[in-house]
Design goal:
Blueprint lengths: L6 E7 L6 H17 L4 E7 H4 L6 H17 L8 E4 L5 H10 L4 H5 L2 H9 L6 H16 L4 E3 L5 H18 L7 E3 L34 H9 L17 H14 L3 H7 L5 H28 L1 H30 L7
Parallel strand pairs: 1-2, 2-3, 4-5
Helix pairs in contact: 3-12, 4-7, 4-13, 7-8, 9-12, 10-11, 10-12
Bound molecules: tryptophanyl-5'AMP.
């Protein structure tokens, strides 16, 4: 809570291109929630500091971060009503993260599955940032006194450690932080790889056919879905264990067309996998197309986006600094002389 208002907070790392998993697990919900909860304060970060845990090419990274901003807007987040901002433009993130590092145990960080996954993928660069990544994420959330954090399933553990850190801090210093809750969507919270459907769809997958990117053109999307790994049966039926590939496609189609899994099964009774895959590809591509068009326009409207970037950075700084000053005071750091 910030004053009288509840707060919704989320963000994405500014690396590479947004995937269909990011869109369905996060961005699509942000848009829906911002329409459903107009009374909430809403902050959506472009988490560029988190991206630094993996080596980036500076020029490409800067371009990507801009592209994320444009895609958030193109997907339907109105930057006038939603505070979309760059994490690195609000220095309170890094400052609070340092303080929270001193309230987080190594044993807690050792349990984080994303750290284990990422350090096995980047074994040549297991840096301290990768390890303390969840603490920076906790700082993001706690700075804004956020109540609800819409994320995909894979980020639930990070929201939980954030709650633990906040509770520990509050027990020592009184009610400083709002304790946040993860908000996991009913459908689309865990979109799987199209090539290995027992693994999460990921932007860093080496097999490009495994991942749909929101900027993929229609032909590419259809081709990737046609090649999606399924099973040797013929029935379009939801069974996550025995038919993970088909179940993933059912989920994607269901969220895209706002249908239930049962509706999808009924729609495709007696139809083959080929026809179903094509329908999924077409549904995804036609949903993404208007966003892609708006995105392309936004990239040419430089001053339009720049105006929002500036105003929203300032708004985020204002909120974040309020919490930071409170924390600094509580832990006993010397107050500034005005
Ligand atoms: P990131 O950038 O990995 O992912 C952004 C969002 O996309 C969701 N997601 C998925 N959802 C469904 N299926 C998938 N295959 C899939 N892949 C990714 C993620 O759950 C996430 O919601 N640490 C965060 C970024 C972050 C953040 C925060 C989020 C930094 N600070 C504060 C919320 C609040 C991350 O790595 O997201």
């Amino acid at each position: 809570m910030f004053g009288e208002k509840k707060v919704l907070y989320s963000g994405m790392q500014a690396t590479g291109t947004i995937t269909l998993g990011n869109y369905l697990g996060a961005l699509k919900n942000w848009v829906e929630l911002s329409n459903d909860f107009p009374d909430y304060e809403r902050f959506f970060g472009i988490m560029d500091l988190h991206s630094l845990t993996v080596r980036q090419n500076a020029a490409e990274f800067r371009k990507n971060a801009r592209s994320f901003y444009a895609f958030y807007v193109a997907a339907g987040l109105d930057p006038e009503k939603n505070c979309i901002y760059y994490q690195s433009h609000v220095s309170a993130h890094a400052e609070l993260a340092w303080i929270l590092n001193c309230f987080t145990y190594m044993g807690e960080l050792n349990r984080m599955t994303q750290f284990k996954d990422k350090s096995s993928k980047h074994s040549d660069n297991i840096n301290a940032g990768l390890y303390t990544y969840p603490v920076l994420m906790a700082a993001d959330i706690l700075l804004f006194q956020a109540d609800s954090i819409p994320v995909g399933v894979d980020q639930k553990q990070h929201v939980e450690i954030c709650r633990d850190i906040a509770t520990r801090f509050n027990n020592l210093y009184g009610d400083v932080f709002t304790i946040p809750n993860p908000y996991i969507p009913k459908g689309g919270a865990k979109i799987m790889s199209l090539q290995e459907p027992d693994r999460k769809m990921s932007k860093s997958d080496e097999n490009q056919n495994a991942t749909i990117f929101v900027l993929d053109d229609t032909d590419t999307i259809i081709r990737k879905f046609k090649r999606a790994v399924t099973d040797s049966e013929t029935e379009i039926r939801y069974d996550e264990e025995k038919k993970p590939g088909i179940s993933n496609l059912i989920d994607i189609y269901a969220v895209m067309t706002k249908k239930t899994r049962e509706d999808v099964e009924k729609e495709f009774v007696g139809k083959g996998y080929g026809e179903f895959k094509l329908a999924v590809g077409e549904a995804v591509s036609s949903a993404l197309k208007p966003m892609q068009q708006r995105y392309a326009e936004l990239l040419t409207e430089k001053s339009y986006l720049d105006g929002f970037i500036k105003a929203n950075d300032e708004k985020a700084q204002y909120f974040a600094n309020k919490t930071l000053r409170k924390v600094q005071k509580k832990v006993g750091l010397t107050e500034r002389i005005r």
